[in-house]
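Support request, please re-run this one:
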Amino acid sequence: MTAIELLSPARNAAYGKVAIRHGADAVYIGALRFGARADAGNSIADISDLVRFAHLYKAKVYATLNTILYDNEIDDAARIAWQLYEAGVDALIIQDMGLLRCELPPLPLFASTQTHNTTVEKISFLEQVGFKRVILSRELCLHDIQKIRQNTKIELETFVHGALCVSFSGQCYMSHFLTGRSGNRGNCAQPCRSSYQLLDANKQLLVDKAYLLSLKDLNLSAYLLQLMHSGITSFKIEGRLKDLNYLKNITAFYRQKLDAMMEQSEFCASSSGRTTFCFTPNPHKTFHRGYTDYFIEGRKDKVASPETQKSTGERLGWVSAVFPQYFVVETTHPVSQGDGLCWLHPQRGLEGTLVNGADGKKIFPAKPVQMTVGMEIFRNNDFRFEKELAGESADRRVRVVFELSEEENGYRLSVTDEDDNTVSSFFDAEKITAKNIEKAQQQIIQQLGKLGNTVFVARQVRFPDDLNCFILTADLNAMRRKLIEQLETVRLEKYRAKEEVRQESDVAFPDKKMDYRGNVANTKANEFYLAHGSTVTEEAFELQFKPNQSARSTVLMTTKHCIRYQYNACPVKQKKKNEWKEPLYLRDSRHTYKLEFDCKKCIMKCIAND
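Re-run finished. Output below.
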């Protein structure tokens, strides 16, 4: 059977453990430096603690070292890689090819989505230079993925849920241009979530102050089986900076979806243990900007949310009446005190209020509101749901079977887990003939089954039908504790993966020349590409430009999001006559950006214009 991995984000070790308890087969986490989320760094000690916890479930921990590196940093990054190896992580996620010219630990390397993994040629190259897995570009469709699978053997990972970068990953320079905070350095200021004006060639206003680059959130839950059959073996959830309830809810949602599919297919989970939940997962109840399946079936829907860059939550219904003290919402969802409701006002954008009270469809807001009949109402904070998630919301257990037998001077107890690991020990214990055989046997089952503070659950306790011994509670507890400690040790020892031996070929890089979009920021990376037949003509954008320095004619973003398509002005897909005088421009409070449309490749470029 093909093992499928559900991969969740870990802001820190505590979050990582929560993700695993809620069904993640693996988590990804950043070290103190050089991760693509600078605000989500962690100590080696904390990562080591997470690794031990994860490996008890045969779950994996991947460490991110996926920023571009400067010359004075790359040796430090290599040292951290060795520290992560000693901590027991299962792989390194990297972007900077300069690391391949360093002495790295024998760990699998995953090519970050920041390496712009869009073509068979690029992914084949990464495979041949020693990468074990590639994290695919979010913009790929099923056909693209199938083509990659047919022409490579490398492991394929893809994002299935969470926030979307408007630009191709690794190809966005807007944040550094504006603020000096680079996405390729793990510190994006998210200018795509800002508002812009859209202007025509005469600088006449077409759209005023809209979130023209802000995309909806990705949700590919309807495509999981198709993605499996297309060759994806790791399904990734975005969100190392999201809150704990998001992590619980979304991980649980995908765990349940995958488990239901695996019951009727040739696929299986890549880790051990079954997860039970104390709530019903619902992705509409946690942070999202509206959902999109993006381009998984090609361009078919509008992917941006220009009205707001904030979370809208689940749609409740529409306003049917407005009164001074309350309003009426036509909905089938019960509303509670403490809920947060929101709506889009045509002039003021997203507005909202807390609920002071509700009487059926009558909603009593915490403040005066201005709304009209017909407005759609959303709930972006479900008080009861959040409270439900705040407690112990999931339990994950590895199933074991105990087997007790009587020997001459005591008892032998063995335990076998669901992965067929077995440990057995003899216990010298006083033999007492049971006065009540049934009661004595029930005590054996009850005491050996007390595994509450472990990762295990007793599926069965076996012993001979004619066993008529009474075993002291203290003896049973001691037997159980010793055996479980031994089983944990065996699981951890057997888990240890083989060291990865990378063999780098002299295969040629697909591009003979690379400009700043190659993100080459150190000498070792330059040497790497030169050794593979590619000349770096420009150093990384971050080394060339200071914030707000003129970068006229430089492409700051390359994206499949198309503003013309968003506003029904696409001459190809929508076959509409474009009445806008082009070129088009975006404008913020400081700069103007020219938009260039490449209809053959179906992409849009955002170019510095001043």
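Residues 562 and 604 are 6 Å apart (CA to CA). The two ends are 56 Å apart (CA to CA).
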